[in-house]
Design brief:
3 helices; binds zinc ion; 68 residues; rod-shaped
Length: 68
């Protein structure tokens, strides 16, 4: 099939395991690998150095006594 051949050409390998990506789950080969990548994003693995996560420390910190 021409259509299938074209999909193979445009498909990129799964960034997690290197297998040919699934059209439905691209760029991953499966939902499993997509979830693995998601967890990597949620973990420190993909955290950008220097980018500080929003913290409520500044807002929750009470004003120092005697400071105007
Ligand atoms: Zn994969």
């Amino acid at each position: 099939m021409q259509r299938e051949k074209d999909d193979m050409r445009t498909a990129r390998p799964c960034p997690i395991c290197g297998k040919p990506a699934s059209f439905a789950e691209r760029p991953f080969c499966s939902r499993h690998c997509a979830e693995i990548d998601l967890h990597r994003w949620l973990s420190d693995a993909y955290r950008v150095p220097g980018e500080v996560a929003p913290s409520d420390e500044a807002e929750s910190a009470p004003p120092k006594p005697g400071q105007k």
